[in-house]
Structures are given as structure tokens and as C-alpha cells.
Amino acid sequence: MNMDELKRQAAAKALEHVQGGMKLGLGTGSTAKHFVDLLGERVKGGLKIIGVPTSEATRIQAEACGVPLTTLDEIDHLDLTVDGADEADPDLNLIKGGGGALLREKIVAAASDRMIVIADDSKWVPKLGRFPLPIEVIPFGLGATRRAIESVFAQCGLTGEMVVRPGKDGHAFVTDGGHWILDAKLGTITDAPRLGTLLGAIPGVVEHGLFIGLANTIVLAGSDGIRVVERP
């Protein structure tokens, strides 16, 4: 079974938690894309739900699949968000943002009663940090912001290369919110909650890809089948 099939298995397992009448957060990325496809099939079969997409790419996909959409301006909370992750640890802390949608993904997850993460089992790690940490920043004053980020890394005993994420055109990648992303290759992050708190206090940092305490369940698909891990 190839990686894409494993991701679809995880998406199908998460879909079992969806009930009629739910308000759903719809994630971004290759695994979440499978969930939206499968959800669209259920909607065509009569399932009544409404979704809030976490990116313009997901919005376009959901509309093409016939999934009715709304915004967090129109509703006050979501019952469930289903999204992928670039990494997940045993405390169900995550690194997200490889697809560039971390800001909207975190807003939607925080507005949800529950978050289910779907992934192939290669994303499961004992400690976060193997995947480069995305940090969404405002382009203005980038040099000052970078220096402040490097200072925070030093406080946390971390070092590593930090680069502006390039776009397909060779210039900086621009998020749906009009910001840039710095990708930091940190290796093992020993205290992800502390790092997240310190990064969030830096002027110029819009958001970071550490999702601490937001995921309730992770569905991991591997060659041995599906494994479901609940928050301790």
C-alpha cells in the first residue's frame, strides 16, 4: 500500500466521527485533501453538514466537491476540525504549516470543540523538530524579527538554519494572509510549549507552527493498519 492510500485510510477513519448537523473545520494538505474528497461523497449521499476551510486551496476543493461552506464570522464555534500534521508527538503536540496555512489552521482548530489529526505513521515522532518549524512573519522589519527569533532559540538551547520559504516563482512564498514564512531546522525541540510561548510574544511573528494542546485525537495509518491515539 502506497503513502497516498495510507493517507486515505486515515481520512476515512476520521470521517466515522462526522455526524449530520455538524459544523466542521476542513484542514489543508495532502491528507486533509482526502478527507474533503470523502466528505464530499457523503454530502452527495445526503449528509447535512457545513464546513469552514483553512485555506483558499481547501475552499476551492470543497466547493468543487459540493461541500457547503461558511465562515467563523457567521458561526460561533465548530464541532470538529479534521486536519493533517507534519509531525505529532506522544503528547499530541504538533508541527504544522508545511502547506503554508498554519495561521488559518490554528484559528479554526482553536474555535473547535475537538480536533482530529490524520496522518501516515511517518509523522509520529518521539520529540518534535525533525520537520522544519514554520514561523509566519510580517515582511516589514524582517531582520529585527529574525534576530528576536534567534534569541528565543538560544534561550531554549536550540540552533539551526532559518530560511525564508521560497515560492514557485523564486520569490518569497506568500501566505493567504499576505505574510512570509521562515522555516527553521532545529532538530529536537526539548520544550515545545515554552518555545511556542516565547515565539508568540515576538512582534513581527504572526503565528508559528507549534500546535500545543489543540489536538484531541490522532489517526495514524501505516502498513500494520490504523492506530488511534487519544490525548493522555
UniProtKB/TrEMBL annotation:
Keywords: Isomerase. Substrate binds at T28, G29, S30, T31, D83, G84, A85, D86, K96, G97, G98, G99, K123. It catalyses: aldehydo-D-ribose 5-phosphate = D-ribulose 5-phosphate. The keyword Isomerase applies. Gene3D superfamilies: 3.30.70.260, 3.40.50.1360. Its EC number is 5.3.1.6. CDD domains: RPI_A (cd01398). Pathway: Carbohydrate degradation; pentose phosphate pathway; D-ribose 5-phosphate from D-ribulose 5-phosphate (non-oxidative stage): step 1/1. Coiled coil: none annotated. The keyword Isomerase applies. It comes from the Bacteria. The active site is at E105 (proton acceptor). GO terms for molecular function: ribose-5-phosphate isomerase activity. InterPro entries: NagB/RpiA_transferase-like, Ribose-5P_isomerase, Ribose5P_isomerase_typA_subgr, Ribose5P_isomerase_type_A. Pfam families: Rib_5-P_isom_A. Homodimer. Catalyzes the reversible conversion of ribose-5-phosphate to ribulose 5-phosphate. Belongs to the ribose 5-phosphate isomerase family. This is Ribose-5-phosphate isomerase A. It comes from Tardiphaga alba.
